[in-house]
Please model this.
Amino acid sequence: MPDSISTIATKWGTAIQKLSDVLGREPAANRPRREVVLWCNLVAERNDELTAIANVAQDLGFTMPSNDEVQASVAKAAERLEALGEDVKKVPNRGRKNNERDEEVIVENAEDGANNTHDQSGDGDSRADFVSSAMVSGAEVFNAQGVAVGAWKKGEVHYYQPCMACTRKPRTTCRGALGAPCTPCRRTGLTTNCSFMSRGNESTPGPSSQTPNARKRSRETLAASASTSSVDDPTPEAEEVPEPVEQQPKKLRTGRHRKKSGTSAKEYQALQYADLISEDPVIAAESPPPTFREARSNSTMKKASTSTTTGSISGKDKEFVSNAVSVTPRKVTSTAEGTVKVADEVEAIWSQVETLQDEVGALRDELSIERERNSVQREQSAMLQKQVADLALELEWLRRTTTV
Model:
């Protein structure tokens, strides 16, 4: 059963949107040739889908509207493909998943294009002078430390050792434009992790992080440099080893002041820790057995008895004792009254909570009713829109039949 005209119109709108999205992601002029060809082929595929839908509508007696701007962009893409020297024929379709992957690659490259051009153009006049002086094939490229890191061949630098990102993968060579990320990193999108990014003078990875072939090549380079140095200077002088300088320990910020001594900070801290560990709980010495005094004389006892009997409380002591006696005890209230009050408050709160729960339930019922009403209105509006589209197509068909 053939599709209805409304279904064809929906497919037409979707195909127009897809073609417009692909045309909006046109690669820049400085992008690689493979990316440009991929984009042109994708535009051709979207245009063919659009043409097939238009042919189906034409068989049913309808003519789909066309957009002049979209057609002009498609013609421009075809001219660009012809300018690259490629055949106008499409690359055979490799499946839906591969086509989606091609679109993702075009989007990623379009987003990273501005960043790559900005990073590559950030070297200034020094990079241009260096490139102009090293255009001869085979010329060596040096980093900021004066170590040869690669050779200039066919307009790009072939590095002797791979960058840090490439050493994680089984790669023994690395190449790319001067001052830009290497070709493997640029293809995989790891532009920020490339060691040769921005200047091309980053230090290369050490032997511990290199592949076996790279380590062999580095050993051969070191052996060759050692042989040349031995020929130039047959009696090399022994290098002077500087005496180790004792570093002064930093002062610890302790709570108590200590005098300067010959011990270091670490030793002092260790001693303090040892003292803390060795400290035992201080046990109070046993008190000596009580010693009783000799009996006092009768005269002394008599004096003390007379003084205690004849003495009386006076002054501040008398006032304190009188106040202490006159203080009345505090009145202790029972907890029964407080319990009753708390129970009343809890009951009132529960009544308020029940009232609020009833109100929330009523609001939920109203919300469900309103949702059902909105869903019915949406279905009615969608049906009306579909009827309007069908009437517009029928009106267009009637106009064309009357003119004929």
In short: DSSP finds twelve helices and four strands in the chain.
